[in-house]
Amino acid sequence: MATNYAKWLYRLTIAFVASLLLYILFLLKPVWHPVLDVFFFAALPFIIGAFIAYLLHPVVEKLHELGIHRGIAILLIYLLFFGSIGWGIYKGTPAIIHQIDDLSKNAPVLTDQYNRGLTYIQYKTAAWPEGIQSMLDKRINGLEAWVTGLATVVLAILMKFMNSLLIIAIIPFVSFYLLKDVVKVKRFFIRLTPRKWRESSASFLRDVDASLGGYIRGQLLVCLIIFGVSTSALWLIGMKYPLILGLIIGVTNVIPYFGPIIGAIPAVLVASTISLHMVIYVVIIVLILQFLEGNILSPLIVGKTLHMHPLFIMGALIIGGEVQGVIGMIVAVPALAIIKVAILHGRTHFIHSRQKEKKGH
């Protein structure tokens, strides 16, 4: 009994000391935060390169299993992947800049049309509480500022991109060497891990990869397909800004359940400034895309790799949205998958520890 009390006292002491250290680190944030920013900026190409290598590794392994030399398989996938990205940036960037510039110039016209719509809504909802009308006013007033500043933001991002070309140029080399020396990299990290944790750490990473790897790769492929189909469909019906709106629909599609709704809102809003028929066409396209993604693409490409109840996923999305908006919603599901694996491994470790304690007594 005394031994159990001593263990709990030890754990509480460790928790108190850890909390105290975290509080001290928080107070020293002005000192270490700039250093962390520099470190993160320097590490970013290695993080992105590692992520790309992680995505491409299973494809390389499949080709290698088919009898293709590993080096040739890496080179083929590597050239195909980065060649496609380079071609897309070369062809797509001027079109995106042109459409954003056009959207920025037409912001006052779009806002005027939205205001007319707002006036009509206010007339129809005159008996509703004032709070709803005030909220709509704020949304409309903020729209013009957001759209007008969009071109400035994008140009600033492009300038940062140009200034960081040397850093970005490192990414393909990082991915290549990680794919080439994947066995050596694994051995390196295994040696860094203490011996008593190596087996459990390897098991944890395998389970995370099994739960998350297929989901991430599948979702990215589905989003790419949805982007291509939505852009083409919007262009065919004569919709304004098809590339920007298609890109928004494709990117937000990575968010389960809520993604298609979030992605459809900008397209419907722009369509409402053209005609009612255009709104109907856009809604039909979004519904078809939703059916295509939910009933064909996701089941075929992604499958049920997460093995999580939809209620848990929805809860994670709501929390992620509250914490960091759309970015938080994109990260929420992968984070939930890692937490789930961590909890299962922690539970297994706790059960084994209790069984060892009982055997010791």
From TrEMBL:
List locations, semicolon-separated: Membrane
Q: Which residues form a coiled coil?
A: none
Offer a single GO CC term for the protein.
membrane
InterPro entries, A to Z: AI-2E-like
Q: How does it sit in the membrane?
A: Multi-pass membrane protein
Major place of residence: membrane
Annotated TM spans: 12-32, 38-60, 72-90, 146-179, 220-237, 269-292, 312-339
One BP annotation, GO: transmembrane transport
Top-level taxon of origin: Bacteria
One Pfam family, short name please?
AI-2E_transport
Keywords, sorted A to Z: Membrane, Transmembrane, Transmembrane helix
Q: Which family does it belong to?
A: Belongs to the autoinducer-2 exporter (AI-2E) (TC 2.A.86) family.
- Name of this chain's protein: Membrane protein
The uppermost taxa in this organism's lineage are:
Bacteria, Bacillati, Bacillota, Bacilli, Bacillales
